[in-house]
Protein backbone atom coordinates (compact mmCIF):
# COMPACT_ATOMS: atom_id res chain seq x y z
CA UNK A 1 0.00 0.00 0.00
CA UNK A 2 1.33 3.43 -0.86
CA UNK A 3 2.03 6.14 1.68
CA UNK A 4 -0.87 8.16 3.16
CA UNK A 5 -0.56 11.85 2.51
CA UNK A 6 -2.72 14.67 3.89
CA UNK A 7 -2.72 18.46 3.38
CA UNK A 8 -3.75 20.51 6.46
CA UNK A 9 -4.41 24.32 6.75
CA UNK A 10 -3.35 25.61 10.16
CA UNK A 11 -6.03 27.96 11.55
CA UNK A 12 -3.69 30.46 13.13
CA UNK A 13 -1.22 30.70 10.25
CA UNK A 14 -1.22 32.45 6.93
CA UNK A 15 -0.06 29.54 4.81
CA UNK A 16 -0.80 25.83 4.37
CA UNK A 17 1.63 23.41 5.92
CA UNK A 18 1.90 20.14 4.16
CA UNK A 19 2.47 17.18 6.46
CA UNK A 20 3.54 13.94 4.95
CA UNK A 21 3.18 10.71 6.87
CA UNK A 22 5.16 7.58 6.09
CA UNK A 23 4.06 3.99 6.07
CA UNK A 24 3.31 2.35 9.37
CA UNK A 25 6.45 1.34 11.17
CA UNK A 26 8.77 3.90 9.53
CA UNK A 27 11.14 5.59 11.92
CA UNK A 28 11.01 9.28 12.62
CA UNK A 29 14.29 11.04 12.41
CA UNK A 30 15.66 14.49 11.91
CA UNK A 31 14.46 15.82 8.61
CA UNK A 32 12.12 12.83 8.19
CA UNK A 33 8.40 12.88 7.56
CA UNK A 34 7.37 11.78 11.06
CA UNK A 35 6.12 14.18 13.62
CA UNK A 36 8.52 15.13 16.42
CA UNK A 37 7.77 14.43 20.10
CA UNK A 38 4.85 16.41 21.38
CA UNK A 39 3.65 17.40 17.91
CA UNK A 40 -0.03 17.59 16.98
CA UNK A 41 -1.93 15.91 14.21
CA UNK A 42 -4.91 17.83 12.77
CA UNK A 43 -7.50 15.21 11.92
CA UNK A 44 -10.68 15.69 9.94
CA UNK A 45 -13.44 17.12 12.10
CA UNK A 46 -11.29 19.88 13.56
CA UNK A 47 -9.78 17.89 16.52
CA UNK A 48 -6.18 18.21 17.55
CA UNK A 49 -4.61 15.08 19.08
CA UNK A 50 -1.31 14.86 20.91
CA UNK A 51 1.05 12.10 19.81
CA UNK A 52 4.52 10.91 20.67
CA UNK A 53 7.33 10.37 18.21
CA UNK A 54 6.61 6.66 18.02
CA UNK A 55 2.81 6.91 17.82
CA UNK A 56 0.81 6.45 14.69
CA UNK A 57 -2.16 8.49 13.52
CA UNK A 58 -4.65 7.32 10.97
CA UNK A 59 -6.64 10.35 9.87
CA UNK A 60 -9.71 8.47 8.72
CA UNK A 61 -13.21 9.97 9.12
CA UNK A 62 -14.74 6.69 10.12
CA UNK A 63 -12.35 5.89 12.97
CA UNK A 64 -13.93 4.59 16.17
CA UNK A 65 -12.76 7.53 18.31
CA UNK A 66 -14.34 10.08 15.99
CA UNK A 67 -17.58 8.13 15.80
CA UNK A 68 -17.78 8.09 19.55
CA UNK A 69 -17.08 11.83 19.79
CA UNK A 70 -19.66 12.61 17.15
CA UNK A 71 -22.23 10.48 18.96
CA UNK A 72 -21.49 12.38 22.17
CA UNK A 73 -21.75 15.75 20.40
CA UNK A 74 -25.01 14.79 18.76
CA UNK A 75 -26.41 13.69 22.09
CA UNK A 76 -25.34 16.94 23.74
CA UNK A 77 -26.89 18.94 20.93
CA UNK A 78 -30.19 17.10 21.20
CA UNK A 79 -30.17 17.61 24.95
CA UNK A 80 -29.64 21.34 24.48
CA UNK A 81 -32.44 21.52 21.94
CA UNK A 82 -34.80 19.77 24.33
CA UNK A 83 -33.98 22.18 27.14
CA UNK A 84 -33.82 25.46 25.20
CA UNK A 85 -37.14 27.37 25.32
CA UNK A 86 -38.51 28.66 22.04
CA UNK A 87 -40.58 31.84 21.91
CA UNK A 88 -43.27 32.27 19.28
CA UNK A 89 -45.42 35.37 19.42
CA UNK A 90 -49.07 34.43 19.47
CA UNK A 91 -51.79 36.75 18.34
CA UNK A 92 -52.71 38.78 21.42
CA UNK A 93 -56.23 39.15 22.70
CA UNK A 94 -56.08 42.90 22.10
CA UNK A 95 -54.96 42.44 18.51
CA UNK A 96 -57.66 39.81 17.92
CA UNK A 97 -60.35 42.07 19.38
CA UNK A 98 -59.19 45.03 17.29
CA UNK A 99 -59.14 43.00 14.07
CA UNK A 100 -62.29 40.97 14.60
CA UNK A 101 -64.60 43.36 16.41
CA UNK A 102 -63.44 46.80 15.29
CA UNK A 103 -62.05 46.37 11.79
CA UNK A 104 -64.34 43.52 10.75
CA UNK A 105 -67.31 44.70 12.82
CA UNK A 106 -68.38 41.17 13.84
CA UNK A 107 -71.34 40.92 16.26
CA UNK A 108 -71.88 44.67 16.04
CA UNK A 109 -74.94 45.96 17.89
CA UNK A 110 -74.79 49.63 16.86
CA UNK A 111 -73.74 51.72 13.87
CA UNK A 112 -72.16 55.16 14.23
CA UNK A 113 -72.37 57.49 11.25
CA UNK A 114 -70.33 60.69 10.92
CA UNK A 115 -68.71 62.75 8.17
CA UNK A 116 -70.12 60.43 5.51
CA UNK A 117 -68.61 57.27 7.03
CA UNK A 118 -70.14 54.40 9.01
CA UNK A 119 -68.63 52.30 11.81
CA UNK A 120 -70.07 48.97 13.02
CA UNK A 121 -69.30 49.07 16.74
CA UNK A 122 -70.36 47.62 20.10
CA UNK A 123 -72.12 49.45 22.92
CA UNK A 124 -70.11 47.66 25.61
CA UNK A 125 -66.91 49.13 24.15
CA UNK A 126 -68.39 52.54 23.39
CA UNK A 127 -69.37 52.92 27.05
CA UNK A 128 -65.66 53.51 27.82
CA UNK A 129 -66.32 56.93 26.29
CA UNK A 130 -67.95 59.43 28.62
CA UNK A 131 -69.87 60.80 25.64
CA UNK A 132 -71.49 57.47 24.75
CA UNK A 133 -71.78 56.28 28.35
CA UNK A 134 -74.07 59.23 29.13
CA UNK A 135 -75.95 58.72 25.89
CA UNK A 136 -76.70 55.04 26.53
CA UNK A 137 -77.32 55.16 30.27
CA UNK A 138 -79.77 58.05 30.34
CA UNK A 139 -83.23 58.58 28.95
CA UNK A 140 -81.90 59.86 25.64
CA UNK A 141 -83.65 58.57 22.54
CA UNK A 142 -80.29 57.35 21.20
CA UNK A 143 -80.10 54.75 24.00
CA UNK A 144 -82.52 52.53 22.10
CA UNK A 145 -81.36 53.31 18.56
CA UNK A 146 -79.33 50.92 16.43
CA UNK A 147 -77.90 53.67 14.22
CA UNK A 148 -76.67 57.02 15.52
CA UNK A 149 -75.79 60.05 13.43
CA UNK A 150 -73.06 62.14 15.08
CA UNK A 151 -72.84 65.86 14.45
CA UNK A 152 -69.23 67.04 14.30
CA UNK A 153 -69.06 70.79 15.07
CA UNK A 154 -65.25 70.87 15.33
CA UNK A 155 -63.55 71.25 11.95
CA UNK A 156 -60.34 69.84 13.36
CA UNK A 157 -62.03 66.42 13.50
CA UNK A 158 -61.89 64.32 10.34
CA UNK A 159 -62.67 60.71 9.43
CA UNK A 160 -59.12 59.54 10.15
CA UNK A 161 -59.22 61.08 13.63
CA UNK A 162 -62.55 59.37 14.38
CA UNK A 163 -61.10 56.06 13.14
CA UNK A 164 -58.23 56.37 15.62
CA UNK A 165 -60.53 57.48 18.45
CA UNK A 166 -63.03 54.62 17.96
CA UNK A 167 -60.19 52.15 17.45
CA UNK A 168 -58.58 53.16 20.74
CA UNK A 169 -61.57 51.60 22.53
CA UNK A 170 -60.61 48.19 21.16
CA UNK A 171 -56.85 48.13 21.75
CA UNK A 172 -54.25 48.73 24.45
CA UNK A 173 -52.08 51.29 22.69
CA UNK A 174 -52.38 53.85 19.91
CA UNK A 175 -49.65 55.18 17.64
CA UNK A 176 -50.08 58.95 17.22
CA UNK A 177 -48.19 60.89 14.57
CA UNK A 178 -47.33 64.49 15.53
CA UNK A 179 -48.90 65.67 12.26
CA UNK A 180 -52.21 64.09 13.33
CA UNK A 181 -52.18 64.75 17.06
CA UNK A 182 -54.37 67.89 17.05
CA UNK A 183 -57.12 66.21 15.02
CA UNK A 184 -57.01 63.13 17.26
CA UNK A 185 -57.04 65.33 20.38
CA UNK A 186 -60.11 67.13 19.06
CA UNK A 187 -61.91 63.81 18.49
CA UNK A 188 -60.82 62.47 21.90
CA UNK A 189 -62.12 65.58 23.65
CA UNK A 190 -65.47 65.40 21.88
CA UNK A 191 -65.87 61.70 22.79
CA UNK A 192 -64.47 62.26 26.32
CA UNK A 193 -61.71 59.65 25.99
CA UNK A 194 -59.46 60.57 28.92
CA UNK A 195 -56.74 58.02 28.16
CA UNK A 196 -56.40 59.12 24.55
CA UNK A 197 -56.42 62.79 25.59
CA UNK A 198 -53.53 62.11 27.97
CA UNK A 199 -51.58 60.27 25.27
CA UNK A 200 -52.10 63.16 22.86
CA UNK A 201 -50.78 65.54 25.51
CA UNK A 202 -47.63 63.45 26.04
CA UNK A 203 -47.04 63.26 22.29
CA UNK A 204 -47.35 67.02 22.01
CA UNK A 205 -44.94 67.71 24.86
CA UNK A 206 -42.34 65.38 23.32
CA UNK A 207 -42.53 66.90 19.82
CA UNK A 208 -42.54 70.68 20.41
CA UNK A 209 -40.46 72.48 17.78
CA UNK A 210 -40.58 75.60 15.62
CA UNK A 211 -43.21 74.09 13.32
CA UNK A 212 -45.51 72.74 16.04
CA UNK A 213 -45.19 75.05 19.05
CA UNK A 214 -47.80 77.66 18.12
CA UNK A 215 -50.33 75.10 16.90
CA UNK A 216 -49.84 73.05 20.06
CA UNK A 217 -50.16 76.15 22.25
CA UNK A 218 -53.44 77.30 20.74
CA UNK A 219 -54.85 73.76 20.65
CA UNK A 220 -53.86 73.13 24.26
CA UNK A 221 -55.74 76.26 25.25
CA UNK A 222 -58.79 75.24 23.24
CA UNK A 223 -58.94 71.67 24.58
CA UNK A 224 -57.85 72.37 28.16
CA UNK A 225 -54.36 70.83 28.26
CA UNK A 226 -52.72 73.25 30.67
CA UNK A 227 -49.50 71.24 31.02
CA UNK A 228 -48.97 71.29 27.23
CA UNK A 229 -49.70 75.01 27.11
CA UNK A 230 -47.13 75.62 29.84
CA UNK A 231 -44.50 73.55 27.99
CA UNK A 232 -45.10 75.48 24.77
CA UNK A 233 -44.79 78.80 26.59
CA UNK A 234 -41.50 77.68 28.15
CA UNK A 235 -40.20 76.63 24.72
CA UNK A 236 -41.09 80.02 23.25
CA UNK A 237 -39.48 81.93 26.13
CA UNK A 238 -36.28 79.94 25.59
CA UNK A 239 -36.21 80.12 21.79
CA UNK A 240 -37.88 83.33 20.60
CA UNK A 241 -34.67 85.35 20.98
CA UNK A 242 -32.02 82.62 21.04
CA UNK A 243 -33.17 80.96 17.79
CA UNK A 244 -34.88 83.69 15.79
CA UNK A 245 -36.26 82.55 12.46
CA UNK A 246 -38.69 83.73 9.80
CA UNK A 247 -40.67 80.51 10.29
CA UNK A 248 -41.11 81.15 14.01
CA UNK A 249 -42.21 84.77 13.49
CA UNK A 250 -44.73 83.60 10.90
CA UNK A 251 -46.01 80.86 13.21
CA UNK A 252 -46.79 83.54 15.77
CA UNK A 253 -49.46 84.97 13.49
CA UNK A 254 -53.28 84.91 13.22
CA UNK A 255 -52.99 83.04 9.91
CA UNK A 256 -51.07 80.19 11.55
CA UNK A 257 -53.49 80.06 14.49
CA UNK A 258 -56.44 79.99 12.08
CA UNK A 259 -54.99 76.92 10.33
CA UNK A 260 -54.75 75.20 13.70
CA UNK A 261 -58.09 76.16 15.20
CA UNK A 262 -60.19 76.06 12.04
CA UNK A 263 -63.48 77.86 12.55
CA UNK A 264 -63.77 77.21 16.28
CA UNK A 265 -63.06 80.89 16.87
CA UNK A 266 -64.04 83.94 14.82
CA UNK A 267 -61.17 85.70 13.04
CA UNK A 268 -60.92 88.65 15.49
CA UNK A 269 -60.65 86.21 18.38
CA UNK A 270 -57.81 84.32 16.63
CA UNK A 271 -55.89 87.57 16.14
CA UNK A 272 -56.37 88.38 19.82
CA UNK A 273 -55.01 84.94 20.79
CA UNK A 274 -51.79 85.55 18.87
CA UNK A 275 -51.38 89.09 20.22
CA UNK A 276 -52.03 87.77 23.73
CA UNK A 277 -49.36 85.08 23.32
CA UNK A 278 -46.73 87.54 22.11
CA UNK A 279 -47.66 89.90 24.93
CA UNK A 280 -47.05 87.10 27.46
CA UNK A 281 -43.62 86.47 25.99
CA UNK A 282 -42.50 90.09 25.84
CA UNK A 283 -43.62 91.00 29.35
CA UNK A 284 -42.05 87.92 30.97
CA UNK A 285 -38.92 88.21 33.07
CA UNK A 286 -38.14 84.64 31.93
CA UNK A 287 -37.69 85.62 28.29
CA UNK A 288 -34.19 84.52 27.27
CA UNK A 289 -32.98 87.84 25.87
CA UNK A 290 -29.82 87.76 23.77
CA UNK A 291 -27.75 90.94 24.03
CA UNK A 292 -30.01 93.76 25.34
CA UNK A 293 -33.58 95.09 25.41
CA UNK A 294 -33.02 96.85 22.09
CA UNK A 295 -32.84 93.42 20.48
CA UNK A 296 -36.31 92.64 21.83
CA UNK A 297 -37.59 95.79 20.10
CA UNK A 298 -35.88 94.76 16.85
CA UNK A 299 -37.43 91.29 17.03
CA UNK A 300 -40.88 92.84 17.54
CA UNK A 301 -40.39 95.12 14.56
CA UNK A 302 -39.58 92.11 12.35
CA UNK A 303 -42.51 90.13 13.75
CA UNK A 304 -44.96 93.02 13.19
CA UNK A 305 -43.76 93.42 9.59
CA UNK A 306 -44.44 89.72 8.88
CA UNK A 307 -47.94 90.01 10.35
CA UNK A 308 -48.67 92.96 8.06
CA UNK A 309 -46.96 91.46 5.00
CA UNK A 310 -47.53 87.68 5.40
CA UNK A 311 -46.66 87.00 1.75
CA UNK A 312 -43.04 88.12 2.23
CA UNK A 313 -40.49 85.36 1.68
CA UNK A 314 -36.83 85.84 2.34
CA UNK A 315 -34.02 85.02 4.73
CA UNK A 316 -33.60 86.19 8.31
CA UNK A 317 -30.64 88.33 7.22
CA UNK A 318 -32.86 90.24 4.78
CA UNK A 319 -35.77 90.61 7.17
CA UNK A 320 -34.66 93.66 9.19
CA UNK A 321 -33.72 95.79 6.17
CA UNK A 322 -36.97 94.85 4.43
CA UNK A 323 -38.95 95.79 7.54
CA UNK A 324 -37.11 99.12 7.89
CA UNK A 325 -37.80 99.95 4.25
CA UNK A 326 -41.48 99.07 4.54
CA UNK A 327 -42.04 101.15 7.70
CA UNK A 328 -40.03 104.04 6.24
CA UNK A 329 -42.48 104.29 3.33
CA UNK A 330 -45.40 104.39 5.77
CA UNK A 331 -43.80 107.26 7.73
CA UNK A 332 -44.11 109.52 4.72
CA UNK A 333 -47.88 109.08 4.77
CA UNK A 334 -48.17 109.80 8.52
CA UNK A 335 -45.46 112.35 9.25
CA UNK A 336 -46.32 113.32 12.81
CA UNK A 337 -48.07 110.15 13.95
CA UNK A 338 -46.35 107.05 15.31
CA UNK A 339 -47.11 103.83 13.46
CA UNK A 340 -48.75 102.28 16.54
CA UNK A 341 -51.27 105.12 16.54
CA UNK A 342 -52.62 104.47 13.03
CA UNK A 343 -55.20 101.80 12.25
CA UNK A 344 -52.66 99.26 10.97
CA UNK A 345 -50.57 99.52 14.09
CA UNK A 346 -53.15 99.78 16.89
CA UNK A 347 -53.57 96.01 17.17
CA UNK A 348 -49.92 95.70 18.23
CA UNK A 349 -50.04 98.24 21.08
CA UNK A 350 -50.57 95.61 23.84
CA UNK A 351 -47.32 93.90 22.82
CA UNK A 352 -45.12 96.99 22.43
CA UNK A 353 -46.46 98.36 25.73
CA UNK A 354 -44.41 95.71 27.52
CA UNK A 355 -41.06 96.70 26.08
CA UNK A 356 -38.79 97.92 28.88
CA UNK A 357 -38.06 101.21 27.17
CA UNK A 358 -35.98 102.58 30.03
CA UNK A 359 -33.20 100.14 29.05
CA UNK A 360 -33.41 101.11 25.37
CA UNK A 361 -33.18 104.88 25.72
CA UNK A 362 -30.19 104.47 28.08
CA UNK A 363 -28.04 103.74 25.01
CA UNK A 364 -27.51 106.60 22.54
CA UNK A 365 -27.46 104.51 19.36
CA UNK A 366 -30.61 102.67 20.38
CA UNK A 367 -32.42 105.88 21.34
CA UNK A 368 -31.66 107.34 17.90
CA UNK A 369 -33.10 104.28 16.14
CA UNK A 370 -36.27 104.47 18.24
CA UNK A 371 -36.69 108.13 17.26
CA UNK A 372 -35.99 107.40 13.60
CA UNK A 373 -38.41 104.46 13.33
CA UNK A 374 -41.30 106.45 14.82
CA UNK A 375 -43.17 103.27 15.69
CA UNK A 376 -43.67 104.16 19.36
CA UNK A 377 -45.87 107.12 20.38
CA UNK A 378 -43.92 110.13 21.61
CA UNK A 379 -46.02 110.24 24.79
CA UNK A 380 -44.65 106.85 25.82
CA UNK A 381 -41.08 108.00 25.29
CA UNK A 382 -41.56 111.31 27.08
CA UNK A 383 -42.83 109.48 30.16
CA UNK A 384 -39.85 107.11 30.15
CA UNK A 385 -37.33 109.94 29.69
CA UNK A 386 -38.87 111.71 32.69
CA UNK A 387 -38.79 108.53 34.76
CA UNK A 388 -35.11 107.88 33.96
CA UNK A 389 -34.10 111.47 34.65
CA UNK A 390 -35.53 111.28 38.18
CA UNK A 391 -33.88 107.89 38.68
CA UNK A 392 -30.49 109.37 37.74
CA UNK A 393 -30.98 112.26 40.14
CA UNK A 394 -31.83 109.83 42.94
CA UNK A 395 -28.68 107.84 42.26
CA UNK A 396 -26.51 110.96 42.21
CA UNK A 397 -28.03 113.29 44.81
CA UNK A 398 -29.82 110.92 47.18
CA UNK A 399 -26.78 108.62 47.23
CA UNK A 400 -28.89 105.64 46.22
CA UNK A 401 -26.56 102.65 46.59
CA UNK A 402 -28.96 100.25 44.91
CA UNK A 403 -31.61 97.74 46.02
CA UNK A 404 -31.50 96.78 49.69
CA UNK A 405 -33.81 93.78 49.56
CA UNK A 406 -35.39 91.39 47.09
CA UNK A 407 -38.52 92.85 45.57
CA UNK A 408 -39.67 90.04 43.29
CA UNK A 409 -42.50 92.02 41.74
CA UNK A 410 -40.14 94.87 40.86
CA UNK A 411 -37.51 92.48 39.51
CA UNK A 412 -39.94 90.57 37.34
CA UNK A 413 -41.67 93.66 36.01
CA UNK A 414 -38.88 96.21 35.61
CA UNK A 415 -35.48 94.52 35.64
CA UNK A 416 -32.97 94.93 32.85
CA UNK A 417 -32.93 91.81 30.64
CA UNK A 418 -29.74 90.88 28.80
CA UNK A 419 -27.92 87.80 27.63
CA UNK A 420 -25.02 86.23 25.79
CA UNK A 421 -24.37 83.07 23.78
CA UNK A 422 -21.14 81.19 24.42
CA UNK A 423 -20.58 79.12 21.29
CA UNK A 424 -17.81 76.98 22.80
CA UNK A 425 -15.79 76.59 25.97
CA UNK A 426 -13.09 79.19 26.54
CA UNK A 427 -12.52 82.51 28.28
CA UNK A 428 -14.92 85.41 27.80
CA UNK A 429 -15.25 88.90 29.26
CA UNK A 430 -17.94 91.38 28.29
CA UNK A 431 -20.22 94.22 29.39
CA UNK A 432 -23.73 95.07 28.23
CA UNK A 433 -24.17 98.51 26.65
CA UNK A 434 -26.14 101.36 28.16
CA UNK A 435 -25.97 103.78 31.05
CA UNK A 436 -26.49 101.92 34.32
CA UNK A 437 -26.27 104.77 36.82
CA UNK A 438 -22.48 104.62 37.13
CA UNK A 439 -22.31 100.85 37.72
CA UNK A 440 -19.91 99.43 35.13
CA UNK A 441 -20.46 95.69 35.42
CA UNK A 442 -17.96 93.35 33.78
CA UNK A 443 -18.93 89.70 33.35
CA UNK A 444 -16.28 87.01 32.97
CA UNK A 445 -16.57 83.33 32.14
CA UNK A 446 -13.43 81.32 32.83
CA UNK A 447 -12.63 77.81 34.09
CA UNK A 448 -16.32 77.02 34.66
CA UNK A 449 -16.79 80.14 36.82
CA UNK A 450 -19.00 83.15 36.10
CA UNK A 451 -17.67 86.28 37.79
CA UNK A 452 -19.19 89.75 38.26
CA UNK A 453 -16.83 92.70 38.70
CA UNK A 454 -17.69 96.28 39.55
CA UNK A 455 -15.22 98.21 37.40
CA UNK A 456 -14.25 101.71 38.52
CA UNK A 457 -10.57 102.44 37.90
CA UNK A 458 -8.91 99.23 36.72
CA UNK A 459 -10.23 99.09 33.16
CA UNK A 460 -11.36 101.77 30.69
CA UNK A 461 -15.03 102.64 30.60
CA UNK A 462 -16.81 104.67 27.95
CA UNK A 463 -19.22 106.33 30.43
CA UNK A 464 -19.21 107.91 33.84
CA UNK A 465 -18.50 105.65 36.81
CA UNK A 466 -19.81 105.91 40.34
CA UNK A 467 -17.10 106.18 42.99
CA UNK A 468 -19.34 105.34 45.93
CA UNK A 469 -17.54 102.94 48.29
CA UNK A 470 -20.23 100.29 47.95
CA UNK A 471 -22.97 99.61 45.42
CA UNK A 472 -25.71 96.99 45.43
CA UNK A 473 -27.31 95.21 42.53
CA UNK A 474 -30.24 92.83 42.53
CA UNK A 475 -29.78 90.10 39.96
CA UNK A 476 -30.72 86.67 38.70
CA UNK A 477 -28.42 84.64 36.46
CA UNK A 478 -29.70 81.76 34.34
CA UNK A 479 -27.93 79.28 32.09
CA UNK A 480 -29.44 76.94 29.52
CA UNK A 481 -28.40 74.45 26.86
CA UNK A 482 -30.85 73.61 24.08
CA UNK A 483 -30.85 70.82 21.53
CA UNK A 484 -31.38 71.28 17.77
CA UNK A 485 -35.18 71.32 18.18
CA UNK A 486 -35.01 73.94 20.94
CA UNK A 487 -35.74 71.49 23.73
CA UNK A 488 -34.11 72.31 27.07
CA UNK A 489 -31.25 69.89 27.82
CA UNK A 490 -30.08 71.38 31.10
CA UNK A 491 -30.45 74.63 33.01
CA UNK A 492 -29.30 76.36 36.15
CA UNK A 493 -30.19 79.56 37.99
CA UNK A 494 -28.92 81.57 40.94
CA UNK A 495 -32.40 82.76 41.84
CA UNK A 496 -32.85 86.41 42.78
CA UNK A 497 -30.02 87.77 44.93
CA UNK A 498 -28.60 91.03 46.27
CA UNK A 499 -24.88 91.51 45.63
CA UNK A 500 -22.78 94.22 47.32
CA UNK A 501 -19.52 95.17 45.59
CA UNK A 502 -16.82 97.62 46.56
CA UNK A 503 -14.81 99.52 43.97
CA UNK A 504 -13.08 97.10 41.54
CA UNK A 505 -14.24 94.12 43.58
CA UNK A 506 -15.17 90.91 41.80
CA UNK A 507 -17.33 88.04 42.99
CA UNK A 508 -17.93 84.50 41.71
CA UNK A 509 -21.69 84.21 41.21
CA UNK A 510 -21.84 80.70 39.75
CA UNK A 511 -19.56 77.65 39.75
CA UNK A 512 -20.55 75.27 36.99
CA UNK A 513 -20.47 71.51 37.06
CA UNK A 514 -18.56 70.34 33.97
CA UNK A 515 -21.30 67.77 33.36
CA UNK A 516 -23.75 70.62 32.74
CA UNK A 517 -21.54 72.41 30.25
CA UNK A 518 -23.13 71.57 26.94
CA UNK A 519 -22.27 74.18 24.33
CA UNK A 520 -23.54 76.42 22.92
CA UNK A 521 -24.40 77.79 26.35
CA UNK A 522 -26.95 80.58 26.72
CA UNK A 523 -26.56 83.04 29.60
CA UNK A 524 -29.37 85.39 30.59
CA UNK A 525 -29.39 87.97 33.40
CA UNK A 526 -31.94 90.20 35.10
CA UNK A 527 -30.57 93.31 36.87
CA UNK A 528 -31.82 96.18 39.02
CA UNK A 529 -29.18 98.86 39.61
CA UNK A 530 -31.21 101.32 41.70
CA UNK A 531 -33.82 101.07 44.42
CA UNK A 532 -37.50 101.00 43.45
CA UNK A 533 -39.08 104.41 43.19
CA UNK A 534 -40.36 105.76 46.50
CA UNK A 535 -43.86 107.08 46.92
CA UNK A 536 -44.41 110.81 47.00
CA UNK A 537 -45.96 112.64 49.94
CA UNK A 538 -49.47 112.39 48.50
CA UNK A 539 -49.12 108.63 48.18
CA UNK A 540 -48.67 108.61 44.43
CA UNK A 541 -45.75 107.52 42.29
CA UNK A 542 -44.03 108.93 39.31
CA UNK A 543 -45.69 107.81 36.12
CA UNK A 544 -44.48 104.45 34.83
CA UNK A 545 -45.56 103.02 31.49
CA UNK A 546 -44.58 99.46 32.36
CA UNK A 547 -47.95 97.78 32.89
From TrEMBL:
It is found in: Nucleus matrix. InterPro entries: BTB/POZ_dom (IPR000210), Gcl-like (IPR043380), SKP1/BTB/POZ_sf (IPR011333). The keyword Ribosomal protein does not apply. Residues 1-85 are annotated as: Disordered. Residues 108-178 form the BTB domain. Signal peptide: none annotated. The lineage of its organism: Eukaryota, Metazoa, Chordata, Craniata, Vertebrata. Gene3D superfamilies: Potassium Channel Kv1.1, Chain A. Residues 61-76 have a biased composition (Acidic residues). This is Germ cell-less protein-like 1 isoform X1. GO terms for cellular component: nuclear matrix. Keywords: Developmental protein, Differentiation, Nucleus, Spermatogenesis. One of its GO terms (biological process) is germ cell development.
